[in-house]
Amino acid sequence: MNIFAYFCPLKLIYDYMKYTGNLVKMRSQLGQPIQYELQLGGENIVMNHLIEKKIQLSFEGVINCKVCGRVTKKSFAQGFCYPCFKNAPQNSPCIIRPELCEAHLGKGRDVEWEQKHHLQPHIVYLAISSGLKVGVTRQDQIPTRWIDQGAWKAIRFAETPHRNFAGQIEVALKTQVSDKTNWQRMLKNILATDINILAKKQELKAFIPKDLQQFYSSNDEITELQYPVTNYPQKIKSLSFDKTPTISGILRGIKGQYLILGGGQVFNIRKHTGYLANISVIS
User: Fold this and answer.
1) Is 103 part of a structural domain of the chain?
2) What is the per-residue DSSP string for the chain?
3) Structure pTM?
């Protein structure tokens, strides 16, 4: 353990903190509220400890691809260089449209990668933020996926042995429910509190294709999520390193993968995956 960190109180440690590294999406863990951790420069920064402190994020002018590591002038789809954007299995069409997945057929851009990530149990879920949405994720990504999307309530809808079946069920449900999150309303904490998510789950069961009804989940546990936010903005101003290389403000909270700063400024950590940056507490 660092001797300075051992003897100094937590407030003093963070007042002198400055770490540099390539941004990756924050880790999260269920709690009251959710706990966030940012890995940067070989350090694990407990982001909850920075709330109500004035922080500064600075772009160092370098972007590295999150797959191959090469330097790229422009980041594509949250962290890819252009060749990986076009060819890497991490950006296959079935990432966005899981019904296109062919892992169960032994096919894909990288069969070994597909088997490891897509030929695995998947969950079709219902989640609520400012409205009801349907989504798909690997079983081991629950509840991380819900947290990343800023949901405040979620439930399992179906449990399938691989990604393709989950995608087919999602396609069927999208005739009734959106698969998108309104990120601005989510960050303003405009919540759809009038939706009975369990009743919706039961209602939507009728829309599962007959040959996939066996995957309807009997797990009716409803997960509620609380985020570490002291003050939600009424207006949103989205910030990007591409236009503003140095960003500062009082950290009012964290929701999804967004840092919420004073004055309605928000910064999407995940969108800037691969950007070489530093973070520091400036007061």
Assistant:
1) yes
2) --HHHHHS-HHHHHHT-EEEEE--PPEEE--SS-EEEEEETTEEEEGGGGTTSEEEEEEEEEEB-TTT--B-SS-BTTTB-HHHHHH-GGG-HHHH-GGG--GGGT-SSSHHHHHHHTSS-EEEEEEESSSEEEEEEEGGGTTHHHHHTT-SEEEEEEEESSHHHHHHHHHHHTTTSB----HHHHHTT---TT--HHHHHHHHGGGS-GGGGGGB----PEEE----BS---SS-EEE-TTT-SEEEEEEEEEETTEEEEGGGEEEETGGGTTEEEEEEE--
3) 0.91
